[in-house]
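Sanity check. The docking grid for F0G depends on where the pocket ends up, so I'm generating a full predicted complex first rather than guessing from homology. Inputs follow.
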Amino acid sequence: MHDFQPKTIIEPFRIRSVEPIHFTTSAQREAALQAAGYNPFLLRADDVLIDLLTDSGTGAMSSRQWAGMIASDESYAGASSFYRFEAAVRDITGFKHVIPTHQGRAAENILFTTIAKPDDVIPNNTHFDTTRAHVEHAGAEARDLVIAEGRQPRLIHPFKGNMDIAALEATIEQVGRERIPAILLTVTNNSGGGQPVSMANVRAVSAVARRHGIPFFIDACRFAENAWFIKTREEGYADKTPQEIAQELFSYADGCTMSAKKDGMANIGGFLAVNNDELAAKCRNLEILTEGFPTYGGMAGYDLEAIAQGLYEALDEHYLRYRIRSIAYLGDRLTAAGIPIVQPTGGHAVYLDAREMLPHIPPMQYPGWALNNALYLLGGVRAVEIGTVMFGLQPDGTEQPARMDLVRLAFPRRTYTQSHVDYLAEVILEVNARRESLPGYRIVWQAPVLRHFTIRLEPLGG
Ligand code: F0G
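Predicted complex below; grid placement will be based on this.
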């Protein structure tokens, strides 16, 4: 038989356990959204048909992960499940100290509480909302230094998550090394469109950090997806496995924070990993105070097992090819229909450019929020605004437009099939056809930080 190279990229799994999804009428959705203060975060999940709020902790686990969970060790201290978890994290990241946490932001809290102080500056390609909030909670400034290409939604560039090295050097020059306790790099760059960072850029950031004696940390949530982009887009990596690429990437850093709810393929969990002994000791002390004993850190033994297995499954080539292709498939359909999205599509989500799509809604009337609510009202689809509601409120209480007003359609891992994606495309196309009739929004109530989670709004014009 001749070798057959199929064009169809299939889901690399079969489904053995199913979960019904809930259909609603448009009148029911209207009532549900109104009761939720027009905030999709406050909807009941049962009122959502296709839930793309986040890819965080929402994926399907494998039979191997469940098998590990059944056989977990729930000892308070020194559980064998911890040692399996620690071995997996060390194998993939190479970092010496592995500090488990209940999720990513707990690792951020421990790290920034330990290293950052008022007037410090922490550069990153782009801080995710929880990362920014923890940096600011420690009194420091979170500075985003993504390359200029990363801020232009329509521009095609293979590594739009890259750090602007000249801007990083200028920041160090201006601020002074002693006020920069760490340099961060988020892979992939979630807030900038799930865009990858190249190995060359990781190397360059690392070189700058080392030259100035500044610790360098990776926000590693989507490290496996980033590895796939390096494999398929960067010269010299086509023949390396995603795991080898990930190992190289981590080798340039001094540590990482991780939400295992993403490329850990788990429903909960995370870790902080560092090489420095003194820093690890300080972090473990704080962890005992806030998370738990350092061999479980806020997780059950079965969570540690799910992650120990999940980290490797996230690096599987068949999985990554299907994963990245299913996002690009939706992106291609929307692009063909002339709908503005962040180009090229990223690793875990398609980002609609609401500011471009809804020019009649100014940023201070929240076009991203308006678009997300329209997707729900029309098709029962829940996504998330990444724009002026999420980022517009400044630490001093003033408000300004975010750099972009996007709607992120994040794909839970191994959860929806191609027909779900076809339905999704149909809903987005129909909302686009009706776009001129969509209203802007006004804020009715908000919290002083991370306001998007609990904010209440109302549509303008009744
Ligand atoms: N860093 C990045 C880049 C993230 O995307 C997230 C979470 C975190 C840190 C925090 O991790 O949720 O486990 O505490 N992002 C989710 C999302 C919530 O929807 O993108 P966590």
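Relevant for the grid: The chain has two domains: 26-55+316-459, 63-313.
Also worth noting: Residues 54, 56, 103-105, 128, 130-131, 186, 190, 219, 221, 259, 261, 270 surround F0G (CB under 6 Å).
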